[in-house]
Structures are given as structure tokens and as C-alpha cells.
Amino acid sequence: MKFLSNEQLAFVFGLLGNIVSFMVFLAPIPTFYTIYKKKSSKGFQSIPYVVALLSAMLLLYYGVLKTNAFLIISINGIGCVIEIIYLIFYIVYASKKDKITTMSLILLVNVAAFGLVMAVTVFLLREAKRVSAVGWLCAVFNIAVFAAPLSIMRQVIRTNSVEYMPFSLSFFLTLCATMWFFYGLFTKDYYIALPNVLGFLLGIAQMILYLTYKNSGGK
């Protein structure tokens, strides 16, 4: 029996990672359908989409700097487009105050902060150092993003309700983290692999929490 090479395994897991990540990017569609029906984004926050856009932008930049990273570039390029569409949609149906808040966040996070990252890496770092610098930044940022659901998990424990932590999303995020961990492992890209270990563990914890509290009925 002939086993697949590391390069072939990396391609398989990277391709699967693209497919699952695409499904995760599409997960907010029901939210925006609700916004469209209500003709208002009141009650919803734009911060998750601003953060998701920055994450995709950083990983896209990392993929461009790195060689042979088409699978990273492809899904994060698509992710950037999807998140921009979500934000435009949000702004169209937002109140004047929320419009100003969201556009300010976009300017601060997606324009100024990302612009600063590009300026520092292009003008202050040698080419050989850029990939590792942006890789570390992506790893740290992704760890922070993966840790964000801890507040929701705490809310589930406090309220005995899983209303705000759907099982399907937790499942696909866990699956996504698994695919990208193995992609990073087989390409020896530990900036991709290591954050997804945390993503996998937190995803498993969320699913266990869901199964524990799903029939509790809430407080």
C-alpha cells in the first residue's frame, strides 16, 4: 500500500479546510436574512465581522508573503469578500449611530491597524523576517479569536441555556480547526497549526457543554 506524501496530505487537508472554512464564512447568512426582513440591524453587533475581516486580511497577507500558499490565499481572499459584503449589508440597515460606530471600527481596525502592519513589515523588516513576523501576528490574533467564545461558554453555564451557542457552528469550527491543524502540520507551518490546537480543544469543549445543557431549558 502506497501512502500519500506530506505534500499530498497537506493539499487534501488544505482543500478540506477551504471547503469547511467557506461553510463557516456562510454561517451568518440567517442573521443577515433576519436583518433584511426587519430592515434593521438593531440588536446585532458589527464587531464579529470587523474582526473576521481583519483575520482574513492578515492570513491573506501571510499567504502572499509565503511561497506555495495558494490554499491559504484562496479561502482568505474569498473570506475578505464575504465579510465586506456582510459589513456593507449591516451598514445599509444600521441606525445612524451604528453606521458611524461600524465605519469608525472599519477605519481603525481594517484600514489603520492593517495598514500599520503592512507599513512596519514592508519598510522596517527585511524580506526574510516578514513571513515569520506576520506568521506570529496571525498566530497570536487567531488564538485571541479562538478564545473569544469563552464568554459565551460562561454564559451557557450561568444561564443553563445553549440559545447563543448553536451546536452546528461549534461542530464546523472544530472541524475547520482540525483540517487547518493537519495542513499546518504536514506543511511544517506552525503559525497555522498551533492556534488550531486551541481552536480544536475549545470546539470540543463547546460541544460537550452543548450536550450537557441542551435539555436544561435555561433559567
TrEMBL record:
InterPro entries: SWEET, SWEET_rpt. Keywords: Cell membrane, Membrane, Repeat, Sugar transport, Transmembrane, Transmembrane helix, Transport. It is a multi-pass membrane protein. The keyword Cell inner membrane does not apply. GO terms for molecular function: sucrose transmembrane transporter activity; sugar transmembrane transporter activity. The keyword Transmembrane applies. One of its GO terms (cellular component) is plasma membrane. Coiled coil: none annotated. The chain crosses the membrane at residues 12-35, 47-64, 70-93, 105-125, 131-152, 164-186, 192-213. It is found in: Cell membrane. Belongs to the SWEET sugar transporter family. This is Bidirectional sugar transporter NEC1.
